[in-house]
From TrEMBL:
Organism: Amycolatopsis rifamycinica
Record has Transmembrane helix as a keyword: yes
Domain of life: Bacteria
Record-given protein name: Ubiquitin-associated-domain-containing protein
Domain DUF4342: 4-75
Record field: transmembrane: 38-67
Length: 91
């Protein structure tokens, strides 16, 4: 699992969270205020649909105006490592 941190303000925060929810490789999103405190933590599963994501995005829109800057910390699912099958001995 990899972790990535990004900083946003206002509606940029909402737009980025929408993008992240729709990505298939995101496991968890944490939103921190400008003091570094976690304000919202969103577990994201592969089957998240718009009906579930809509209230979350609405809540994020409501908090977006409360701080000068927000930090999004994203846990990405590690990409599966492809292993090549060993070639069978031709004896």
């Amino acid at each position: 699992m990899t972790k990535k941190t990004e900083n946003f303000r206002g509606q940029e925060l909402v737009a980025r969270v929408k993008e992240l929810i729709h990505q298939g490789n995101v496991r968890r999103i944490r939103i921190k205020n400008d003091e570094g405190h976690i304000v919202l933590e969103i577990p994201v599963t592969a089957g998240v649909v718009a009906a579930i994501a809509a209230p979350v995005v609405t809540a994020i829109g409501a908090i977006a105006a409360l701080a000068k800057e927000w930090t999004i910390e994203v846990d990405h699912v590690a990409a599966p490592v492809e292993t090549k099958p060993e070639e069978a001995d031709r004896n």
